[in-house]
């Protein structure tokens, strides 16, 4: 009986160790409020709001991002950020050309960058990019 338990336990333990990464919570876990395995704009914005991304980036708490605040928060991730969002993200995202990014400009443009196929939802593999950026050391790691 002892040997049978060992034979059954070893594969079970090995399987649980292999399955752990797949079962681990994603950095954006819980954002998909309608459980359709994709994020629409409202789910994305709500998730970033709950994570405190815009609030963290808005150092002076005036409700907009200056170019200085924007660049300071990109920090050492400039190359990777530019690859994901473009080298002129701040200017491109400032739709009203007032030299400030509103929350709407920030969310709409960052969302559009993840929605690579422009189908108005972020799904696999786009979710993987978002997960990378939400994780430790990512752009939105707060």
Automatic annotation (TrEMBL):
Transmembrane segments: none annotated. Residues 1-24 form the signal peptide. SUPFAM superfamilies: EF-hand (SSF47473). Keywords: Signal. InterPro entries: EF-hand-dom_pair, EF_Hand_1_Ca_BS. This is EF hand. PROSITE patterns: EF_HAND_1 (PS00018).
